[in-house]
Design goal:
By secondary structure, this protein is mostly beta strands. Helices cover 0% and strands 43% of the residues.
């Protein structure tokens, strides 16, 4: 049996590749924006969150209490030759944390170029 009020699990993730960036989406409902820590370290994207519910009503007679604390940690390897680490951005909306990972300009697809014959 795990302790009541504790939940440390790994959230589901979707990763999409687009022409100019990768988008990473984590399903993390129940958190506030301030609960997240998103950082890049040693060519890894590290995402963690911790949420604690304060005990406002200490004297209530709970027979079971599972609300209170949940956390997670995830890490993703970043290929430095593809990802522009300086331009990574994130937003949290409707229970989804979205991290945008722009590609370096050197690896972006280039428009075809016609060569004029002289």
């Amino acid at each position: 049996m795990r302790p009541a009020g504790s939940d440390s699990s790994v959230p589901a993730v979707n990763i999409k590749e687009m022409d100019t960036q990768f988008e990473l989406e984590l399903s993390v409902p129940g958190f506030d924006k301030s609960d997240f820590n998103v950082r890049v370290e040693n060519q890894k994207l590290l995402i963690s969150a911790e949420s604690k519910t304060e005990n406002e009503k200490e004297m209530e007679n709970y027979t079971r209490r599972e609300f209170g604390y949940h956390s997670f940690q995830r890490s993703f390897a970043l290929p430095k030759e593809i990802i522009n680490e300086e331009a990574i951005d994130a937003k949290y909306e409707a229970g989804i944390l979205k991290v945008m990972l722009p590609k370096r300009t050197e690896v972006l697809p280039k428009e075809p170029k016609n060569i004029v014959i002289s």
